[in-house]
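Hi R.,

Here's the chain you asked about this morning:
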Amino acid sequence: MNAPDFYEMFTLPEGVKKVGVHLDLKQPNTAIFEIQKEDHTLGNILTKKLHKDNRVLFSGYKSPHPLEHKILIRVQTTEETTPTGALKDAITSLLAELTNIKARFEFDLIRVKAEQEARQGGDPAAPGAGRSAYPADGIDGAAAVNLDVDF
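And here is the predicted structure, written out as tokens:
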């Protein structure tokens, strides 16, 4: 079969950098980032995040070939920042957003578990019973809880 081995989709060969930067000399403040072993998932989310930045004039990505596991992200910025700076800012913002989503999910999981235990005859006087799982509401969300929940 002509298809590459499965492990080649995510294993970075020795001596190959994860991210390469190529400056576009035809356009000012433009660079093409070659990211190895990634696909449309990362390319789409990064370009969408870059589109929200007012300092970015253009951002787009492509996957050169279905059997090549890499993406190319083209970024053109204003004079206020560099393409590398804009991409770093987008990645930082994306990481913060994903961390927030993860924390909210974990807090809701704790809340659902507590509600299920209360409905199944759990002790209503138990610590945390009937209270919100969000730290902003006064509860420490880092408490050790078994998160095995069936939905």
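One quick note: Residues 6-88 form a domain with the Gyrase A; domain 2 fold (CATH 3.30.1360.10).

Cheers,
M.
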